[in-house]
Amino acid sequence: MSNQGESSGPATVGQWIARAVAVLILVPVRLLWEGVKLSVRVSIAVVTYFLEHLLVPLCVIVWNWVIKPAWHLLKDGLWGWLLQQVLWGLVLTPVLAFLLDFVLRPLRRAVEDWLWRRILVPAGAWLWRRVVRPMAAWLWRWVLRPLGKIVLGVCVLAVDWLLVRPVRALWRWVLRPLWRALRVTLRFGWRVATVLVGVLIVTPCVFVYRRVLAPVFAALAVVWNVLVARPVRWTYVHVVTPMNRWASEIVTGVFGR
């Protein structure tokens, strides 16, 4: 309680000096800091507003209505006109026509008349007669033809020794004996199979047919004739035919022809 009473008493000289120093030094510094922050915020807001609402729309308007039309005009109209009409029509076309008429065509005629006809053609003919044809004949006679004969002989010998003779020996000593043995085996097997089939299948079938099936079929035929064919024939002759005749006469008598 005594401490609270002492602290709530009148301020001392040191406290008043501290308060004065705080008011004179710290408060202006704080006010200056707040002013600087406020100035920065205001400046940023002004610059942002200027950029968003004034400079950007102005730039868009200038780009869409001034720079872009001017660029299209320069690119499509002025540049195309310069290239097509001025540069190509007034400069390049006359220059190219002049070069073609007075430089290239005379140069071509000079090359054709002088270089080709007077130098290249005679030189080519002389080289063909004196160099190429004799060299080709000599090369064919002394190099290519003997070399071809040697290569052909080597190929013939290689085919004879590597293909013809092995195939001939294979046929003579292996394939032909195997074929003969196979042919004899097939003949013998065919005869044995024929005998076995005749003994095991054909003879029993003939015996069964002659001793069993033929009498049974004959008995069935007799029974069928007696029990079915003859009654049906007698019924058709003695019953059905007269009934058809009577029915035809009755219908003719009632309805007329």
Provide the gyration radius in Å: 66 Å
Low-pLDDT stretches are 1-7
Beta strand count: 0
Structural class: mainly alpha
Helix content: over 70%
Give the averaged pLDDT, no decimals: 79
Specify the number of helices.
2
How far apart are the termini? Answer: 159 Å
Which sequence of SSEs, written as H and E, runs from N to C?
Answer: HH
> What percentage of amino acids are in beta strands?
under 5%
Principal-axis shape equals extended
Major sheet size, sense and barrel closure: none
Keywords: Membrane, Transmembrane, Transmembrane helix
Transmembrane segments: 16-33, 45-66, 86-107, 146-167, 188-209, 215-236
Helices and strands, with pairings:
Blueprint: H1 2-7, H2 13-255
Quick structural gist:
The protein contains two helices and no strands. By secondary structure, it is mainly alpha-helical.
Structure description:
- With 257 residues, the protein is an all-alpha fold.
- The protein has helices spanning 2-7, 13-255.
- The longest helix is centred in the middle third of the chain and has 243 residues, at 13-255.
- The model is unreliable at 1-7 (pLDDT under 50).
